[in-house]
Amino acid sequence: MNKPVIVALDVEDKTSLDRLLNKLGDPKDITVKIGMELFYQFGTEPVKELVAKGYSIFLDLKLHDIPNTVYNGMKQIAKLGIQYTTIHALGGSEMIKKAHEGLIAGTPKGKSLPKLLAVTELTSISDDSLANEQNCKLTMKDQVISLAKMAKNMELTV
């Protein structure tokens, strides 16, 4: 079984983006991750261009807001033709459910539904920060497991 190669396009300008893409080879063999830096600087255009070239897209924006706002955001994201996108599991089960519904509503007919990935805790959060800033009584490991189980147990399907 081949494991997909995912390359983060964490660059600051289009010249650097083009240079990196030219080094990658056949777009059909690669998934590229577009994060906040690239997306907020250039908007949807790089996503559309990369989809048109045949790249598989992992749009990593980690949405976390009220359920209706996430629904509408995911509806727009799905229209881009991406394969993966992210939300924060901390947004709760209702937000995750609405994110999934938004993807269903926005996915063009005949296209595959993007996979929804739930981010549990950021790697920058320390145990101390988890306890004192988030007032979480669990260890980081237990918090991550708890959030992952919640997201997995939702069994979202089309």
TrEMBL record:
<feature type="active site" description="For OMPdecase activity">
    <location>
        <position position="60"/>
    </location>
</feature>
<protein>
    <recommendedName>
        <fullName>Orotidine 5'-phosphate decarboxylase</fullName>
        <ecNumber>4.1.1.23</ecNumber>
    </recommendedName>
</protein>
<comment type="pathway">
    <text>Pyrimidine metabolism; UMP biosynthesis via de novo pathway; UMP from orotate: step 2/2.</text>
</comment>
<feature type="binding site">
    <location>
        <position position="10"/>
    </location>
    <ligand>
        <name>substrate</name>
    </ligand>
</feature>
<feature type="binding site">
    <location>
        <position position="123"/>
    </location>
    <ligand>
        <name>substrate</name>
    </ligand>
</feature>
<feature type="domain" description="Orotidine 5'-phosphate decarboxylase">
    <location>
        <begin position="4"/>
        <end position="158"/>
    </location>
</feature>
<comment type="function">
    <text>Catalyzes the decarboxylation of orotidine 5'-monophosphate (OMP) to uridine 5'-monophosphate (UMP).</text>
</comment>
<keyword id="KW-0456">Lyase</keyword>
<dbReference type="InterPro" id="IPR011060">
    <property type="entry name" value="RibuloseP-bd_barrel"/>
</dbReference>
<dbReference type="GO" id="GO:0005829">
    <property type="term" value="C:cytosol"/>
</dbReference>
<keyword id="KW-0665">Pyrimidine biosynthesis</keyword>
<feature type="active site" description="For OMPdecase activity">
    <location>
        <position position="62"/>
    </location>
</feature>
<feature type="active site" description="For OMPdecase activity">
    <location>
        <position position="65"/>
    </location>
</feature>
<feature type="binding site">
    <location>
        <position position="33"/>
    </location>
    <ligand>
        <name>substrate</name>
    </ligand>
</feature>
<dbReference type="Pfam" id="PF00215">
    <property type="entry name" value="OMPdecase"/>
</dbReference>
<dbReference type="InterPro" id="IPR018089">
    <property type="entry name" value="OMPdecase_AS"/>
</dbReference>
<dbReference type="GO" id="GO:0006207">
    <property type="term" value="P:'de novo' pyrimidine nucleobase biosynthetic process"/>
</dbReference>
<dbReference type="InterPro" id="IPR001754">
    <property type="entry name" value="OMPdeCOase_dom"/>
</dbReference>
<dbReference type="InterPro" id="IPR013785">
    <property type="entry name" value="Aldolase_TIM"/>
</dbReference>
<dbReference type="GO" id="GO:0004590">
    <property type="term" value="F:orotidine-5'-phosphate decarboxylase activity"/>
</dbReference>
<dbReference type="InterPro" id="IPR014732">
    <property type="entry name" value="OMPdecase"/>
</dbReference>
<dbReference type="GO" id="GO:0044205">
    <property type="term" value="P:'de novo' UMP biosynthetic process"/>
</dbReference>
<keyword id="KW-0210">Decarboxylase</keyword>
<comment type="similarity">
    <text>Belongs to the OMP decarboxylase family.</text>
</comment>
